[in-house]
Amino acid sequence: MRSLYYPITLPDTFDMSAIERRVRDRAPAFEGLAGLALKAFLVASVAQGATKNLYAPFYFWERSTAMTEFLGDPLFHAVTESFGRPQVFDRPVLQFNIVCRDFSPRVATLEELAVDPKRPIIDAYRAESAEHRRTLSRAGLYAAATVLDVTQWNVQRIGLWRSANDAARANANVQQLTVLAVVGSAVHRNGFPST
After folding, report:
1. What distance in Å separates the CA atoms of residue 193 and residue 29, rounded to the nearest whole number?
2. Residues 6 or more apart in contact with residue 70 via CB below 8 angstroms
3. Residue 194 domain-assigned?
4. Does the residue 193 lie in any domain?
5. Is residue 124 part of a domain?
6. What's the total number of domains in the chain?
7. Most Cβ neighbours (<10 Å): which of 2, 101, 129, 151?
8. Could you tell me the CATH number of the domain that includes residue 148?
9. What's the whole-model pTM score?
């Protein structure tokens, strides 16, 4: 499984309701997209207290070939036409679970942690696996994932939460973004396998 993330910084004066309309209009096109486990349409807005306006789609792909095909697809071309060619972060997924489909997530948390260069990678992996299992028991969690940035040896933890309060109870010191929509095969499939 692979993750794909491309945060796009927008001007402070950008009308973020345009992003909300874009997501409302385009999210259905991602339903049934081959190999897409989950796409979270994420934003941050200066008007809501963020330090910058941000449109930050986050994807989880079942197969790297599906991700590669998407980058040549008209859906991704529409992104480059609207915002230019974004910096894209492609990372292997260490763990991914949908926890509860009883609600739609409203908040995403992104936490990046450096892997200690003196620590064996296998030990770091085991520790992250244990932390991921603990996270799965948190109230208000819709989905959780851990990805590995092998270019800088960082771990990124992603959580999708019912509310900002649920996210803050889990960890108050992480970046929070608003979830406008989630789509993909894992959203509808019970028992989606964890990785």
Report:
1. 24
2. 4, 33, 35, 36, 59, 61, 76
3. no
4. no
5. yes
6. 1
7. 2
8. 3.30.70.100
9. 0.93
Q: Measure CA of the first residue to CA of the last residue in the chain; give whole Å.
A: 7
Could you report the per-residue pLDDT of 111-153, keeping only the tens digit for each? 999 999 999 989 999 999 999 999 999 999 999 999 999 999 9
List strand residue ranges (DSSP E) for the chain, in order. 2-5, 8-10, 36-44, 53-55, 58-61, 89-98, 107-114, 141-149, 154-161, 175-183
Which phi and psi (to 5°) does residue 105 adopt? -70, 145
| 24-61 confidence digits (pLDDT tens) | 999 999 998 999 999 999 999 999 989 999 999 999 99
> Are 144 and 110 within 8 A, CB to CB?
no
Domain residue limits at 141? 2-187
Distance between CA atoms of residues 195 and 186, nearest Å:
13
On the question of pLDDT at 195 being above 50, the answer is no
